Task: inverse folding
């Protein structure tokens, strides 16, 4: 405790003087102790592991208490939309990057999970100290980081079956996913019914210390329960924090637990630093900078796109996106889980942690100068680029203005259909990733059990199944997009009647033509293009055969449902 706390305290003071968050001091203390003082004995590792686990549980408990469900229901719609858009884009981009440089699928998915979030503590400290954005924009950014934390809790839950080995079994993943959903839903719904009332009663009848001990005991009980069913202790602690946040005495618990949380949270981040060797940093300096660059680009572009879709000015979107380029605390939690499970190598782990440190160190500088960067780009960009951006922004503003002319029910249905269409796109991407990973295994399975067919024929069958699997969400996507187009056409007609229409007739003709095309014809055309675009070893003729086979399967399914009286 002497070494851990004193060295961490000294490092934190130094970094605070440099206007850096204390977390960097804790991580640096761990690196210093690991390389120059601590002996690395089994006894030392056991003690540090216990202290680290306590820090993780208390940290996640406090993160859960920060999630105010009432505030989320009131003003969290925009933040949820931002998270729904940018998180999948980051994970997909990180996965593709990992595969392109030779990482295996599990490592690539973990990398996406690691860089998907931002640090609530670091972002909050930086933004509140700068005053560059309005109070409303800062609150929105902080709420986005909290929702990212929730998403990363779910990702960590989903990653649990993947961390036991490198072989992915579909049945075990589905079963684990069902257990996770049931456990999380039951823990929150049942817990909210009873636990806040119990804690409020204790707060009214007992001293504050009794309330604190009871709340912390509940926190560790839920953490233990999550471990017993095969999940991370962090998930149980987070869920109990969400439940406790609904109690009226939440502020008392939060105030009293903060010193304890600060001490043991420091232990957790010190333990993260203890896993990093100086030689790993030197040997992987190029990978560290590359990981940071990938994270910064994916984070900024995905958030800028999300803010654009959310009808926010580009300047606000860019400044908000830059202000979130700091890897979150969950980067360390997920990376440590991957290292402990043997999925991540020590050099990979060290590179990710160091890249997170780089992002935290650079965030104050980047956020402070985000406005200047935006002004410089807008002032020096080529005129055609600025004109194109202005036109796109004008089209977006026009669409939102026209949608506002519709009735409340139509506007609500428009947003609902857009959300479902976006989820359909994500589902299509997920299906293609799964088939890309498993095509060889599925083909080998068919070839081994259907000896009368050639390997190429088995491969074609797998592609046909892929065609059918994509056709289902693709049909839903086209159906919802057609509804969106009809709303836009009707809104344009209403705007023209008021003399406010500005959509070109060519665009209107395109929208009308799109609406009139048969849904299944569009599905088959787009599905076939997807089959061609996704890399595989078959030729054009095999792709045609796979498409015809897929269409045959869909027709058989349709005929069967039609025979039973379904529409």
Result:
């Amino acid at each position: 405790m002497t070494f851990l706390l004193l060295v961490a305290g000294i490092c934190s003071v130094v970094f605070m003087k440099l206007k850096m968050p204390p977390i960097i001091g804790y991580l640096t203390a761990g690196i210093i102790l690991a390389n120059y003082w601590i002996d690395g004995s089994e006894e030392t590792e056991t003690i540090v592991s216990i202290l680290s686990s306590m820090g993780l549980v208390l940290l996640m408990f406090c993160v859960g208490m920060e999630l105010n469900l009432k505030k989320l229901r009131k003003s969290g719609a925009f933040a949820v939309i931002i998270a729904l858009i940018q998180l999948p884009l980051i994970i997909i981009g990180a996965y593709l990057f990992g595969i392109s440089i030779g990482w295996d699928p599990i490592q690539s998915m973990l990398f996406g999970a690691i860089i998907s979030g931002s640090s609530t503590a670091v972002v909050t400290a930086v933004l509140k100290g700068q005053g560059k954005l309005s109070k409303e924009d800062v609150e929105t950014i902080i709420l986005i980081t909290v929702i990212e934390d929730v998403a990363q809790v779910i990702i960590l839950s989903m990653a649990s079956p993947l961390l036991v080995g490198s072989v992915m079994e579909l049945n075990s993943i589905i079963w684990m996913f069902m257990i996770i959903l049931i456990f999380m839903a039951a823990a929150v719904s049942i817990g909210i019914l009873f636990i806040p009332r119990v804690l409020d009663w204790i707060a009214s009848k007992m001293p504050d210390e009794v309330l604190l001990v009871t709340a912390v005991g509940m926190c560790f009980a839920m953490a233990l329960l999550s471990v017993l069913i095969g999940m991370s202790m962090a998930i149980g602690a987070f869920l109990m924090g969400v439940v406790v946040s609904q109690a009226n005495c939440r502020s008392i618990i939060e105030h009293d637990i903060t010193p304890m949380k600060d001490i043991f949270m420091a232990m957790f981040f010190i333990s993260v630093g203890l896993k990093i060797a100086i030689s790993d940093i030197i040997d992987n300096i190029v990978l560290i900078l590359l990981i940071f660059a990938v994270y910064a680009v994916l984070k900024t572009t995905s958030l800028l796109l999300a803010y654009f879709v959310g009808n926010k000015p580009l300047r606000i979107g860019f400044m908000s996106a830059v202000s979130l380029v700091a890897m979150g605390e969950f980067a360390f939690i997920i990376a440590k889980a991957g290292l402990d499970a043997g999925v991540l190598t020590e050099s990979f782990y060290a590179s990710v942690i160091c890249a997170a440190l780089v992002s935290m160190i650079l965030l104050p500088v980047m956020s402070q100068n985000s406005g200047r960067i935006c002004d410089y780009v807008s002032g020096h960009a080529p005129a055609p680029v600025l004109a194109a951006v202005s036109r796109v922004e004008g089209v977006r503003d026009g669409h939102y203005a026209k949608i506002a002319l519709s009735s409340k029910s139509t506007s609500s249905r428009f947003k609902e259909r857009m959300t479902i269409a976006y989820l359909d796109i994500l589902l299509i991407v997920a299906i293609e990733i799964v088939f890309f990973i498993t095509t060889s295994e599925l083909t080998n399975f068919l070839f081994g059990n259907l000896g009368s067919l050639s390997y190429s024929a088995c491969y074609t069958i797998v592609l046909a199944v892929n065609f059918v699997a994509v056709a289902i969400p693709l049909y839903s996507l086209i159906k919802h997009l057609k509804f969106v187009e009809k709303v836009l056409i009707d809104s344009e007609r209403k705007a023209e009647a008021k003399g406010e229409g500005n959509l070109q007739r060519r665009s209107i003709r395109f929208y009308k033509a799109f609406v009139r095309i048969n849904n299944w014809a569009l599905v088959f055309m787009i599905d076939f293009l997807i089959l061609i675009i996704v890399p595989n070893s078959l030729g054009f003729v095999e792709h045609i055969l796979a498409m015809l086979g897929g269409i045959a399967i869909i027709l058989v399914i349709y005929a069967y449902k039609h025979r039973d009286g379904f529409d």
Remarks:
- The two ends are 70 Å apart (CA to CA).
- Confidence is low (pLDDT under 50) at residues 165-170.
- The first helix runs from residue 2 to 17.
- Residues 374 and 430 are 34 Å apart (CA to CA).
